[in-house]
Amino acid sequence: MGGDGEKRFAWRIHGTRAIYDNPWIKLDLVDVEQPDGHRFEHHVVRLRAAAIAAMIDDQDRVLMLWRHRFVADRWGYELPGGLVDDGDEPIETIAREMREETGFRAARIEHLLSFEPMVGMVDSPHHLFIARGLERFGEPTEVNESARQQWLPLASIPDLIARGEIWNSGTLITLMHVLLSRPRR
């Protein structure tokens, strides 16, 4: 990987200029050249990294949040998560988000994988975790995050996905990874 044969297929960047920049989103116009020599300006959206966790209890259930997303004007189940603050590590972010959004803390948080949801146009690393050894210590302090919390059996997740009740990319990938990693019965 990364040998001379691949280098000739890499796009070259000749320059970047910010079109819009605030603490939540940055839009750049990037002067790029494709391997065939075609050169043009390409829009790139840059977002802060996100951290998401599947909170699994000892009954093989996952804690889900029922949320409305105004952009798509749609309801669905999601896992707790949030944007990584400058100077924080993703694992610190997810521990805080779980406390704020659910009122639970975890004895163990394990990194599963990281992914980019829309390569080619959007730079937005998503860090996915699994949390176990859950302890309820209070009520959620972030009251705008969900209409309700619900413990759902992991076995019910494929049906919820098929019905379109789970449609957020970070939630989908986290839950699919958890399901695919389970020992076959």
UniProtKB/TrEMBL annotation:
Gene3D superfamilies: Nucleoside Triphosphate Pyrophosphohydrolase. GO terms for molecular function: hydrolase activity. The keyword Hydrolase applies. Pfam families: NUDIX. SUPFAM superfamilies: Nudix. Keywords: Hydrolase. Coiled coil: none annotated. Its cofactor is Mg(2+). Residues 45-174 form the Nudix hydrolase domain. This is NUDIX hydrolase. GO terms for cellular component: cytosol. The keyword Oxidoreductase does not apply. One of its GO terms (biological process) is ribose phosphate metabolic process.
